[in-house]
């Protein structure tokens, strides 16, 4: 729209200069006699909010006809009475006034776009729509503001940007992804990630391949009335992304470079060597045996303390370069871009590298025929991630005593070889301990690589006035591989039985799709109609292969067949089940007098996941909007710039992942039987049903109701939006237990109902004060997630967090009626036993003579007997929390003064629980391999002892014979946090300066990311806990640290 206004301005200036009346330079419109008074000369420039000159703007002395239009550089010069008022105006912009106080030689008047005049157009499914016509819940994210967050991926740019959109970073690793959920979760077995649509092409639920610098606009479709047009794939919301296209005119070249220094400021305060030795001595007091005498009192102050978090961290450099070229003729336009990202990572030996290339080309074959090609290729590779909690828990010294001699062991020995822990029998105190630096430095051949290609081509025919046909063909290809060799040096690693190993993993997935649709638009003075109908078909396929072996003759061998131990070879592979979709869809929008708007959509999806009787599902939606601000009785109030009420209802579907569980499957089966006469076992081959199946398996149905209100005041300087939604997911695809007499234990069927409901509020304020421009954007949302009906409780256990010497973490989460999906599951703690009398009293009341299922002693946790049977058993477990925040919010502040600009972003959550496996491990001396591990410094200082009976933590033991570290509410931590995620200062160089370097624009900035986290959880790690598994929401097992980043960047345009 700015370009259109620019060309109109050039035309107006040209016309003004062309006629005989204006045979000389641009003159004032007229001159009139005025009362004799002091006259000032005012020279200045009219620009837009980006600092671009506005050509042909009217500048006039208010109340007179003394004025002129700006020239090609937006400049003007007028003689004005002192005390008069200058008024600057231009079509599509809000009028500005300036008081004349005297001579002004460099006045800059900034005009702000008038949102009512420049009708904003947003991208919706299979088309575009004026924002004023929206009847559903759609949020636009300003791509220009997003880029001021300095994001390296889209998730980083969307954090805290939109109400109802939860964006949680799953890890701080250089390749760390994000978990994005829109309005909660709607399934227990499938994905809750939204669908991404890039330039009209459905690219799935992953957007890591897209370079944020290529993004032109983002729209987030949240309610079913907006997403139903995508049917089965729109169940979790839709994020519409439009990338940058070419434009007519001379070519423009843009280049940007960004350099960041990253620091690990997310370290856990664990015990140093002396404090750890104190903890060892206390554990021995409670029954352990000290096998490393270096932890005795006689060596206090002599131990070489190693801070493994420091040793495993480094100051890392991140480099990000982007180059693009855009331009075109009347017939052909193109935008080409390439980007390169290299992030070293703050953990030693970790890195992530990404190369992106994109080409968008459009061509007008005839006035009514348009074709286009979009190509996006990404290659990425990363090495080594790591878990900072596990580094923190490494024993903080490698010193040991052997045969009465004290050995101080550094990380690197004087001869250059690696230092190591004491290596003895399986009973060794350091069993399984590694020199972490040595392990990282010698495991350099563990690289993951992936490639992504998204290619699409379109043909558009303008058949008649208002009638267009468009067809889009696309190919989406993804391949990921891992090539990893792990060497073994018995002087470096703690386990003597470990051997070198080599593994190769390869996955390939592809999707071919074709979508064709017709759009028709018609209008007259009172009515507007827009209709769309289309057809879609897609086919997905995938193959995978995993192979590994161990014990090779030499380190440089990378061939599985050459292993010394053929029994270690393990190979698996196969082809994923093909999934096919066939769909028909349509949308009708009707507007009466631009006040009353109706939108209706329908989509009929067919999926190969289901049997012939339920293969197709129909998903309708309908929504209404009433633009009250267009009613005279509202206009007369002179209060609202915009006032609109919205209401909508709709359904979407979910087909789950590729499955054949609706079709009976047979497999070969050997039956062994004993023949009495022959006196031996006989084998008979046969065919049997493989699994119990439900032939009536059908779609999950996601039904959503939304009511919204949009308001704006003061010429749209202040705006509000409020939504209330109820999202019901029914006929969930889950496994249900069945009678064993059937020959099976479970069946995959439709059974269950999940509900998400909440409020969403967003507000924005933008104001200009002379050379100052200030903006504030704030959003917040509430969410309540509930399993309304799921039948038998659904338990979930992550095998990565299992039982360790009594640490019972079986069934981490439970989904049952009346509670949130994936609620935390465990025992409740009533405090700490202070003396043996308390224990004896409870034991006396137990039918087994033992109240707790462990070797209980004073200083141990006291668990609550919930079922009242007098003893602690599995039946006393219950729901102890959930990982869904009650409130999520975001705040964005922007300001500019002349050529300087500033932005700050914050986001956070409240009312969230974190199920902290990290807290359990950081208060347990017992390591994964049976040896000791380091613990939180606060735990050693504030654990229960006879001398400290008020300690907040249970007694220190090496083993956990009372199961003090089993899954319980002792490890449910408050996960509320507020993060200052980004602050940026920028400066745009004056155009008259950069033009000498043949540049059109130049800007530099400095910024900082992940600046501050305010949370009571910080002692255990970062409270921002993400997981791609719905049933592990809010579960913290330790992660790669979230680094503090300080950046400097430049961008230039030629």
UniProtKB/TrEMBL annotation:
What PROSITE patterns is this protein classified in? PROKAR_LIPOPROTEIN, TONB_DEPENDENT_REC_3
Q: Which UniProt keywords apply?
A: Cell outer membrane, Membrane, Receptor, Signal, TonB box, Transmembrane, Transmembrane beta strand, Transport
Taking the first listed entry, what is the main subcellular location of this protein, grouped into a coarse class? membrane
What Gene3D superfamilies does the entry give? Carboxypeptidase-like, regulatory domain, TonB-dependent receptor, beta-barrel domain, TonB-dependent receptor, plug domain
Transmembrane keyword on record: yes
Domain of life the protein comes from = Bacteria
Query: Which residues belong to any copy of the TonB-dependent receptor-like beta-barrel domain?
Result: 418-904
Record membrane topology: Multi-pass membrane protein
Any idea where the TonB-dependent receptor plug domain is? Answer: 131-238
As for subcellular location, the record says: Cell outer membrane
Signal peptide segment? 1-23
Q: GO cellular-component terms in the record?
A: cell outer membrane
Q: Which family does it belong to?
A: Belongs to the TonB-dependent receptor family.
Record-given protein name: TonB-dependent receptor
Q: Which organism is it from?
A: Bacteroides uniformis
């Amino acid at each position: 729209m700015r370009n259109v206004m620019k060309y109109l301005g050039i035309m107006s200036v040209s016309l003004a200069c062309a006629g005989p009346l204006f045979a000389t330079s641009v003159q004032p419109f007229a001159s009139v006699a005025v009362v004799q008074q002091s006259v000032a000369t005012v020279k200045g420039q009219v620009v837009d909010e980006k600092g671009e000159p506005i050509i042909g703007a009217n500048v006039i002395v208010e109340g007179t006809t003394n004025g002129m239009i700006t020239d090609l550089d937006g400049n003007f010069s007028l003689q004005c009475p002192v005390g008069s008022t200058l008024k600057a105006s231009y079509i599509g912009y809000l009028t500005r006034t300036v008081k004349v106080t005297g001579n002004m030689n460099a006045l800059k008047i900034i005009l702000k776009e008038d949102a009512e005049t420049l009708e904003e157009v947003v991208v919706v499914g299979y088309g575009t729509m004026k924002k004023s016509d929206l009847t559903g819940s759609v949020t636009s994210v300003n791509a220009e503001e997003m880029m001021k967050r300095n994001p390296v991926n889209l998730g980083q740019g969307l954090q805290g940007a939109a109400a109802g959109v939860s964006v949680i970073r799953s890890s701080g690793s250089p390749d760390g992804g994000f978990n994005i959920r829109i309005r909660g979760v709607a399934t227990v077995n499938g994905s809750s990630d939204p669908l991404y649509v890039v330039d009209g092409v459905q690219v799935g639920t992953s957007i890591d391949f897209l370079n944020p610098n290529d993004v032109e606009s983002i729209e987030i479709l949240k309610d079913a009335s907006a997403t139903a047009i995508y049917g089965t794939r729109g169940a979790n919301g839709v994020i519409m992304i439009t990338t940058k296209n070419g434009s007519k005119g001379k070519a423009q070249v843009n280049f940007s470079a960004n350099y960041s220094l990253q620091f690990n400021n997310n370290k856990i305060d664990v015990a140093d060597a002396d404090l750890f030795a104190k903890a060892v001595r206390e554990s021995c007091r409670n029954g352990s045996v000290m096998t490393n005498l270096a932890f005795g009192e006689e060596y206090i102050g002599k131990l070489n303390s190693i801070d493994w978090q420091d040793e495993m961290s480094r100051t890392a450099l991140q480099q990000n370069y982007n180059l693009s070229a855009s331009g075109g003729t009347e017939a052909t336009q193109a935008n080409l871009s390439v980007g390169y990202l290299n992030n070293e990572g703050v953990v030693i030996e970790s890195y992530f590298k990404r190369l992106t290339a994109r080409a968008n080309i459009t061509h007008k074959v005839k006035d009514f025929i348009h074709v286009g090609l979009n190509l996006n290729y990404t290659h990425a590779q990363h090495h080594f991630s790591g878990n900072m909690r596990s580094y923190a828990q490494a024993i903080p010294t490698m010193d040991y005593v052997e045969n009465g001699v004290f050995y101080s062991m550094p990380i690197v020995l004087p001869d250059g070889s690696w230092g190591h822990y004491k290596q003895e029998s399986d009973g060794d105190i350091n069993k399984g301990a590694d020199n972490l630096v040595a392990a990282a430095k010698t495991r350099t051949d563990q690289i993951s690589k992936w490639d992504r290609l998204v290619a699409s081509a379109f043909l558009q025919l303008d058949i008649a006035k208002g009638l267009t046909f468009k067809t889009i063909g696309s190919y989406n290809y993804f391949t990921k591989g891992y090539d990893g060799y792990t060497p073994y040096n018995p002087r470096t690693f703690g386990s003597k039985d470990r051997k070198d190993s080599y593994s190769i993993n390869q996955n390939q997935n592809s999707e071919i799709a074709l979508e064709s649709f017709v759009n028709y638009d018609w209008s007259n003075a009172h009515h507007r109609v827009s209709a769309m109908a289309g057809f879609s078909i897609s086919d997905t396929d995938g193959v995978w292969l995993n192979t590994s072996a161990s014990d090779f003759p030499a380190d440089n061998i990378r061939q599985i067949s050459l292993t010394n131990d053929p029994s270690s070879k393990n190979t698996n592979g196969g082809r994923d089940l093909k999934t096919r979709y066939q769909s028909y869809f349509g949308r009708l929008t009707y507007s009466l007098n631009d006040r009353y708007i109706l939108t209706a959509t329908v989509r009929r999806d067919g999926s190969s996941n289901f049997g012939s009787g339920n293969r197709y599902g129909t998903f309708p939606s309908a929504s209404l909007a009433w633009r009250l601000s267009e009613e005279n009785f509202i206009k007369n109030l002179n209060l609202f710039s915009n006032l609109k009420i919205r209401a909508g209802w709709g359904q979407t579907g979910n087909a789950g992942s590729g499955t054949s569980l609706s079709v009976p499957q047979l497999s070969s089966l050997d039956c062994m039987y004993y023949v009495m006469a022959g006196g031996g076992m006989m084998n008979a081959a046969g065919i049997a049903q493989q699994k119990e199946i439900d032939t009536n398996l059908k779609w999950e149905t996601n039904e959503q109701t939304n009511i919204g209100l949009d308001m704006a005041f003061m010429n749209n300087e202040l705006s509000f939006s409020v939504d209330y939604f109820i999202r019901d997911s029914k006929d969930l695809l889950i496994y249900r237990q069945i009678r064993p007499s059937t020959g099976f234990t479970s069946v995959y069927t439709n059974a269950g109902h999940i509900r998400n409901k909440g409020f969403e509020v967003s507000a924005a304020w933008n104001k200009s004060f002379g050379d100052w421009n200030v903006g504030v954007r704030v959003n917040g949302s509430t969410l309540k997630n509930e399993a309304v009906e799921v039948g038998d409780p659904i338990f979930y256990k992550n095998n990565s967090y299992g039982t360790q010497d009594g640490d019972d973490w079986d069934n981490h989460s439970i989904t049952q009626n009346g509670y949130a999906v994936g609620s935390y599951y465990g025992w409740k703690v009533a405090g700490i036993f202070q003396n043996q009398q308390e224990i004896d009293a409870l034991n006396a009341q137990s039918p087994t003579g033992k109240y707790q299922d462990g070797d209980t002693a004073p200083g141990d946790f006291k668990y609550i007997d919930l079922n009242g049977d007098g003893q602690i058993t599995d039946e006393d477990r219950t729901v102890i929390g959930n990982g869904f925040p009650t409130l999520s919010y975001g705040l964005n502040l922007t300001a500019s003064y002349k050529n300087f600009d500033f932005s700050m972003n914050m986001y956070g959550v409240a009312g969230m629980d974190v199920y902290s496996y990290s807290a359990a491990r950081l208060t347990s001396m017992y390591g994964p391999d049976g040896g000791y591990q380091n613990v939180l410094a606060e735990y050693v200082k504030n654990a229960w002892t006879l001398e400290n009976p008020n300690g907040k933590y249970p007694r220190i033991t090496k083993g956990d014979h009372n199961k003090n570290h089993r899954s319980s509410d002792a490890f449910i931590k408050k996960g509320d946090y507020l993060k200052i995620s980004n602050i940026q200062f920028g400066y745009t160089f004056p155009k008259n300066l950069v033009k000498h370097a043949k540049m059109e624009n130049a800007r530099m900035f400095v910024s900082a990311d992940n600046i501050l986290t305010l949370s009571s959880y910080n002692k255990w790690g970062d409270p921002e806990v993400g997981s791609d598994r719905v049933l592990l929401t809010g579960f913290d097992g330790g992660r790669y640290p979230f680094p503090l980043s300080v950046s400097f960047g430049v961008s230039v345009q030629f």
